[in-house]
Recover the amino acids of this structure.
């Protein structure tokens, strides 16, 4: 099978590349390296089954050519991370919506039989107050704090674009609402909490907690996430569906900080920052984000293999140079 991964030099994208190369597939990647890294795909560059194109899919003139070769397309290209979103919301809107539309127009024109998986986000649930989010829940976005929620709006727009092209062009699409994902090759540069905590703990730096730390998240190891995405792509019953992808084990950010510190044997103190101190402006925070995974389990039978402590131990060892990503 020939697989195309847009944003394939990014965190999740590069793990999708590794997964499919291990399965014996041919893999092409298009990435402009704005948030992705050549380091993430460096181990694959010598593989004859791998092809990398450093290009911006917003303007790249070979997009149709590469799309025409792909039997499966993972559209992962996006600007992510609260800090990055607030830094340049215009780029977020352009990349996350316009690039998505251009990919789908190419698919509709030159490869309408391809299986397409798009990466949506748990952010689209917004301020829904339920204890866990299911795919049929209401989307609740506040009218204020517009810049904070532009990422969620772009991902919701991507979902509507996907349905529009599926309806008019018959394209096979699975929409994956991906919850907090962690693992090797994730950068803390744009505000990702786990790699930030791991780096701070290993180096005995203060662990910086935004707000009071009582907000909860559910973290899924990226090696589980890519397996779930691949199984969804192979499941005919998943076509046209929105499916939560993640792990439903919940932990507060404060407890996460203490767990990372304990696993690392760190002497790091805890340092609490206001959101204005962290982001340069006040933002609304979601108090919890836990996926209800019944639909994922029904469609795929998928069960996560990595437990949070195991992932943290792996990341701590990588940070110390004791293991290789």
């Amino acid at each position: 099978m020939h697989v195309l991964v847009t944003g394939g030099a990014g965190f999740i994208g590069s793990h999708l590349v590794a997964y499919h190369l291990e399965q014996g597939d041919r893999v092409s990647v298009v990435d402009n390296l704005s948030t992705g890294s050549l380091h993430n795909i460096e181990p694959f560059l010598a593989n004859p089954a791998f092809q990398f194109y450093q290009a911006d899919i917003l303007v790249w003139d070979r997009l149709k050519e590469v799309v025409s070769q792909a039997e499966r397309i993972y559209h992962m290209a996006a600007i992510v991370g609260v800090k990055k979103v607030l830094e340049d919301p215009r780029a977020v809107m352009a990349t996350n919506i316009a690039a998505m539309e251009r990919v789908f127009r190419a698919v509709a024109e030159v490869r309408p039989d391809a299986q397409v998986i798009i990466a949506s986000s748990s952010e689209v649930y917004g301020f829904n107050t339920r204890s866990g989010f299911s795919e049929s829940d209401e989307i609740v976005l506040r009218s204020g704090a517009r810049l904070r929620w532009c990422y969620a709006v772009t991902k919701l727009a991507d979902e509507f674009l996907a349905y529009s092209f599926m309806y008019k062009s018959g394209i096979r699409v699975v929409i994956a609402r991906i919850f907090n994902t962690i693992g090797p090759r994730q950068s803390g540069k744009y505000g990702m909490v786990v790699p930030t905590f791991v780096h701070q703990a290993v180096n005995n730096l203060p662990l910086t907690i935004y707000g009071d730390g009582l907000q909860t998240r559910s973290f899924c190891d990226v090696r589980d996430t890519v397996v779930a995405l691949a199984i969804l792509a192979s499941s005919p019953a998943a076509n046209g569906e929105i499916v939560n992808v993640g792990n439903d084990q919940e932990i507060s950010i404060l407890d996460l900080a203490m767990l990372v510190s304990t696993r690392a044997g760190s002497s790091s103190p805890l340092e609490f920052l206001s959101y204005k101190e962290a982001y340069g402006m006040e933002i609304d925070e979601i108090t919890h984000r836990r996926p209800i995974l019944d639909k994922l389990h029904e469609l795929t039978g998928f069960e996560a293999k990595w437990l949070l402590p195991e992932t943290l131990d792996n990341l701590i060892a990588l940070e110390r140079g004791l293991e290789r990503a």
In short: Residues 2-183+219-248+289-304 form a domain with the Rossmann fold fold (CATH 3.40.50.720). The two ends are 25 Å apart (CA to CA). The first strand starts at residue 2 and ends at 6. The chain has twelve helices and 13 strands.
